Structure of Homodimeric dihydroxyacetone kinase:
Amino acid sequence: MTRLFNDPTEFADEMIDGFVSANAQQVRRVAGGVVRSTRTPDGTVALVIGGGSGHYPAFGGIVGQGLAHGAAMGNLFASPSAQQVESVATAANRGGGVLLSYGNYAGDVLHFTQAEQKLNAAGIPTRTVVVTDDISSAPVAEKHKRRGIAGDFTVFKAAAAAAEEGYTLDEVVRVAELANERTRSVGVAFSGCTLPGADEPLFSVPEGRMAVGMGIHGEPGIDETDVPTADELASLLVDSLLAELPDGIHSPEGHRVGVILNGLGSVKYEELFVVYRHVAALLQNAGLEVVDPEVGELVTSFDMAGVSLTLFWLDDELERFWRAPADTPAYRKGSVGAVQQLDPSEVQEAEAVVIPEADEASQHAAAVVLRAIDAIATVVDDNADELGRIDAVAGDGDHGIGMQRGARAARVAASEALALGAGAKTLLEMSASAWANKAGGTSGALWGVALSAVGEALGDEDAPSAAAVSAGITGAVDGIMSFGKAEVGDKTMVDALVPFRDTLAREVDGGAALADAWKRAADAATQAAAATADLLPRMGRARPHAEKSLGTVDAGAYSFGLIVQAIAATLVGKTV
Amino acid sequence: MTRLFNDPTEFADEMIDGFVSANAQQVRRVAGGVVRSTRTPDGTVALVIGGGSGHYPAFGGIVGQGLAHGAAMGNLFASPSAQQVESVATAANRGGGVLLSYGNYAGDVLHFTQAEQKLNAAGIPTRTVVVTDDISSAPVAEKHKRRGIAGDFTVFKAAAAAAEEGYTLDEVVRVAELANERTRSVGVAFSGCTLPGADEPLFSVPEGRMAVGMGIHGEPGIDETDVPTADELASLLVDSLLAELPDGIHSPEGHRVGVILNGLGSVKYEELFVVYRHVAALLQNAGLEVVDPEVGELVTSFDMAGVSLTLFWLDDELERFWRAPADTPAYRKGSVGAVQQLDPSEVQEAEAVVIPEADEASQHAAAVVLRAIDAIATVVDDNADELGRIDAVAGDGDHGIGMQRGARAARVAASEALALGAGAKTLLEMSASAWANKAGGTSGALWGVALSAVGEALGDEDAPSAAAVSAGITGAVDGIMSFGKAEVGDKTMVDALVPFRDTLAREVDGGAALADAWKRAADAATQAAAATADLLPRMGRARPHAEKSLGTVDAGAYSFGLIVQAIAATLVGKTV
């Protein structure tokens, strides 16, 4: 139950404000997240981590000496946008290059990958190591498909300590990859969690039951049992991890391991210690030597009740990094060296926006686009609860709130752009950027791609033709399919996009006015979305089993249908 | 909801085992709790804190450099016994004397006061500063009656830093008293908590409501409202604290304050940060300068959902102590100096028990006493759930579990004593000590006092007469009334004890055999207990409003009645 909030759509922002205010000795706010407030020697590799909010201390809480240099902090359970990651990494960069590291979730992969490309293009050498420690989320043969959970921490810790020692970017990458290979976690859950302003839990576990392998956003597990005793749980966790030794380790006997027994939120410290008592005994019985165990909350999931156990199989170098000191808001260890506070002028911030010149015809078109974006924001507002409800069936239930944040931000950005004299292309680009940035998550990124592609086709000169709009839509659909890696039939928004694109192109080619063509295309999209939505009753309200990890699936098709219908209404009477 | 445990009666012990196992760098286990595992310079004042378990990181989690030297860790929500406090303090003592500091709860006051007397008698200069920061729990004119909540931490921190600087015991006491005067807290609660093995919450708050001023064990608050927004809550907390400035401070303007925004368990870090954002703004608006705020969990109450705000009004000396470094399992700050691990041989442990000689007649009497204690343990086991249920009406619901732990431990100790040849007095003393030590809480202490007083009257020589037993019971009742400060009519176990004592004495004086006299006395006790219990329906299941803070009230009378009846059965056929 989340009880304390103001406007739920502002929760993540206000949380970051309060967090930074309480921890100014260690972190300072930049666009997109936080960076260290302390000085880092020039030439040091910067470790930039991130992910959705709601997992404190992940991710902002572990920024500081000996750990991350910056954290991109997305909205609740939603990936930060590429722009957020780029902004934080630019601010964190000290000239030694950037390592991006984060847990393996589709939305995060999309955005961090995009950011990596932009950073490299901007001359900041950037690499990525994705954390895949959750053994329940895919077979060992497909370790690259596994999710990242509390093992994020061991990978971050090792990479950060290597950077602190002056390792080069290549060397830090090597360490992080080895740490990821040497880190295995398994988790269980006893309850779900409820996001701010939500009436119902995002997901749940039946009372008295335990979901084995459930992910920190409620991703499906591999088994469900009665809640065991503390000792039985310890055995289950230890046995599961000892059944899968990392490459090159053939027996636990004589090995040294870092250990994290992590609580997800509502499991209390006292319970963790009771479980740890038996975990420690079992590891010792197996011949392992435990090094600096951590029993507490390193990755949470709001008020979810759950526990995970992580083993970090050390070699001498990894052990040095595991034992190294750190001083962050939520994690402190040993004694770090004296440090100076960073002068704000030393942080490179994003540059101010420059509005390219546009002719009067394109400024006029921009005003029409603003009305369309206004219509989007309104229809999303009106349907936010319903979108959330649909998304909760097979996704994480945040589609309504995410779309709302994105569309509202796009409307503000579009208004500002119009006031500054922007043409259609610039207005759409600024809206796209605002949408992706504020909405976070996968759908935010996809709408950013879409608006941006349409803008590209419309340009900042001349009144756009119906053909240009149709070309823009084609570009948007191509972009979404390429970015999101979904095909028709995957039950994603692509199922509605493709008939929309095809109908629009056919009608425009046949000489129809834009308003008429758009309306017919919108009808085709709505019909396709409804077909997708028809699946819902059969999917039931059980835990998500969707194979696709594009979080918004059918809800995305449904919202797309609503939006193109709303835009159709704004086009009535237009003569393009 | 507490889900992870083995045997609920072993929960606190197993929790301490796991806690010590995970934090061996900072703490080591001793009888009764933990002490630092690191070396403290000889002559340093030792700060010994403590209280019931279930409040992690209070109290064991804040033992370490810069904070406490030892923590007496009681059972769940139950005071540690005097013996536990004495044991921990003896182990923590480095020759500079001991400061005992803890939150102001009746059970803790009883046990720590007893321990203080014993420590002083044993030549360890010992003083006490009780923390009374909760402004909702009594008017300012009766600050000494207020409970201690998260403000425990500021008092401990200041006292510990003073000790670390080499202050004498008198000076550390002065600092702790000033810190307590300068510390004010106010708390709110949104839900109760559930102890291990319990079917129902110990206490609760209606869904959607907020109990203003509710204590960390569910003690009644001063108001109940709907759950406010985060900003409204921040205003409520700040306004409440600014309405009561400490002595000598006439305006917040220009003052410096340490701040703790404390979560009690289920309120998430993210929510705390959202609230803190506005707290910080309000404090700044009031002209205060915030020094090193702490936003997190410093005193919890299992999975209770609640928040408290603490202001610590600093002067230069207190600010130095507030800013001082610390390194404990749950709280680390800045960089502490290098430190050596303590050699276990340097810790003074309690001495082994010596069994005084006893004659055959007294050994025979001891065997009869063992049967009586066995009967106590059996009847308590059989009625543990019922005792918990009765206690939950007006107390904290742990009477059944506490009596069970105590009686079982007494039975084990009595068996061992008998096997070692103990007489009646020694067997009762060892049972008394085991009961008080294992049961914790007020009833544990009272039963310890009672068994010990009976033993004193029986001696280790000769078969005890009925008159000796009656004298022992009179001594026991005197001891309980003096220790517990309760009178007949207060609805405590005294209501059953006094008629028991009076009937027994009258019958024995009149020449009745012990078995007959005891049976009649037991009937009188049962009748009195039933009269006390009759109040229950009228008290309803609402939140406790009992004025007496002797937690077990009517349940104690009821269990006393059961016990003396069970003993009566063991005496049938005895010819004393």
In short: Residues 183 and 312 of chain B are 5 Å apart (CA to CA). Chain B has two domains: 8-324, 360-571. DSSP finds 17 helices and 14 strands in chain B. The mean pLDDT of chain B is 89.
